[in-house]
Write a structure and sequence with these properties.
429 residues, six-stranded mixed beta sheet, 16 helices, 18% strand, globular
């Protein structure tokens, strides 16, 4: 019976995806872009508000400001302190969440749509957006917690490698700035309030709503949230990252396992080469045990338990990355094999059989990316924040199925030049 129910649910999800996701879009009177997908089956509402306020907007010498600002945004707002906010959310069964990454800072709300639950949840969210307290004691507490976490991370080879990789990949660009205990220690309440005033504005925001609402209700909620923000406008972006130049960073560490990252800046959101790169990368290193990197590095030579590759498109040129761990004495040989596999793939692309398997997996698993309101919200928010077409999800599977071997070869040749790879190792002999 459990298998039948699972199969029936999967079929319903697949049918819903094939039927298309209707995303409606408009702009509030205060200049906020809004994206709405009705999901009438459950009496729930999921909201995500995104601001171009990620770490790429940290001022020089103030790395960590975006993350700290977002981190304490909902720890006291208006007349409510953090305890009152937590208790009131618990009373109505609502959840506030979100976070900050390189491009954006996000605030999420999940609530029931019954009026006695929805109204107080929206009131809390509006206060968090409009008048966060940035309490001095809480700021010092969170700074201490952040600094402690950064110091602990500096002892771990994986964290050391990741930090060095981004710095090597994006020298002189904000994407390469990494928070340190020293930079976080300099942050003041004035820094947070100025960052919030500059970037948490209606003109720099997109609101995504998924749930049991009518278009009219969604408009009213969006206006209510947007009107709490100053008008503002999107910040100016920095110059695009420079093309990669081959470089090697070797960092000593007593760990028994070497941590190895190879990559380069590769692709921005909305680039038409995304689908050929996605499909091709499944064969290269994104398909788990069926990928070439796993077969050559793990299965044939036993160099690593896990090896992977992926593309991470961002507002500006995001990275292509290969990662693995291996015994330190065989790190250089493992790197040599990785480079050989990548070079051959860029030159020849996947076989027709590999291409068919990649497309079948990526297309077949796509419905599982939309099988809950929260997953759908995440996709709608990406479409809204990055300005992707409203029918992006409708054509996702078709664009995967349209990819050819020649498309993969051409896309990889444009975006991945093996001679320009940046290599970072920690604890490698």
């Amino acid at each position: 019976m459990k298998r039948l129910l699972t199969a029936a649910f999967t079929l319903l999800v697949a049918q819903a995806v094939l039927a298309g996701v209707a995303i409606e879009h408009w702009t509030t009177g205060n200049g906020t872009r809004v994206y709405f997908a009705a999901a009438p089956s459950l009496p729930m509402l999921d909201i995500q508000i995104d601001f171009a306020a990620g770490s790429m907007f940290d001022p020089e010498g103030k790395a960590g400001l975006a993350a700290l600002t977002r981190g304490i945004l909902d720890l006291g707002a208006g007349e409510r302190d953090e305890t009152v906010i937590s208790e009131q959310l618990a009373d109505i069964g609502a959840l506030l969440g979100g976070g900050a990454d390189t491009d954006r800072a996000s605030i999420t709300l999940r609530t029931l749509t019954a009026r006695d639950k929805l109204e107080p949840a929206l009131a809390i969210l509006r206060d968090v957006l409009h008048q966060p307290a940035f309490d001095a004691a809480i700021l010092e507490r969170e700074k201490t917690r952040t600094i402690t976490g950064l110091k602990e991370a500096m002892t771990r080879p994986d964290s050391i490698a990741g930090k060095a990789f981004w710095e090597a990949l994006y020298p002189g660009h904000p994407y390469g700035r990494q928070a340190t205990p020293e930079s976080v220690a300099t942050l003041t309440r004035d820094d947070l309030t100025a960052f919030h005033a500059r970037l948490y504005t209606a003109g720099n925001a997109s609101i995504s709503l998924v749930g049991q609402l009518t278009r009219k209700q969604a408009e009213q909620i969006a206006e209510r949230l947007s009107s709490a923000l100053p008008a503002g406008q999107p910040p100016e972006l920095p110059a695009a990252p420079a093309p990669a130049r081959s470089a090697v960073t070797a960092i000593g560490h007593p760990a028994s396992q070497a941590h190895i990252y190879l990559g380069l800046p590769a692709i921005e959101r909305g680039n038409p080469d995304f689908f050929p790169l996605l499909v091709g990368n499944y064969t290269l290193g994104g398909g788990g045990f069926v990928s070439r990197l796993v077969k050559e590095v793990r299965d044939k030579r036993g160099f690593a338990y896990s090896v992977y590759s992926y593309f991470a498109p961002m507002r500006q040129t995001g990275p292509f990355q290969i990662g693995l761990q291996t015994q330190r004495k065989q790190a250089q040989e493992a790197i040599k094999v990785v480079r050989e596999v990548l070079g051959e793939f860029v030159a020849k692309g996947p076989s027709e059989e590999e291409l068919a398997a990649a497309k079948a997996n990526l297309s077949g698993s796509f419905p599982l990316r939309l099988d809950s309101n929260s997953k759908l919200l995440g996709n709608v928010a990406v479409i809204g924040f990055y300005g992707l077409p409203l029918d992006y999800l409708d054509h996702y599977q078709a664009r995967i199925e349209a990819v050819t071997v020649d498309d993969v070869k051409a896309a990889f040749s444009r975006h991945v030049q093996p001679a320009n790879l940046v290599t970072v190792t920690v604890a490698a002999d």
